[in-house]
Amino acid sequence: MELIGGLPQQSGDFGFCRKLSQKAPPLSPPNQTARQMQLSLIVPLGGPKPSSPQNLAWDKGSPECERLVTAEAEVPPGIIREWEDRGFQVFFRRGSRGEGLKEMAERAKSPLLLFVHGDTQLPRDVLSQILEARAAGHHWGAFHLGFDRGMGVPHRLGLALVAWGANLRSRRGLPFGDQAPFFDKEFYFSLGGHPSFDLMEDYVLSKRAARVEAPALLHGRVRTSARRYLAQGILRTVLQNRRIIKAFKKKVSPEELARIYYR
Question: Model-level pTM?
Answer without folding.
Answer: 0.82
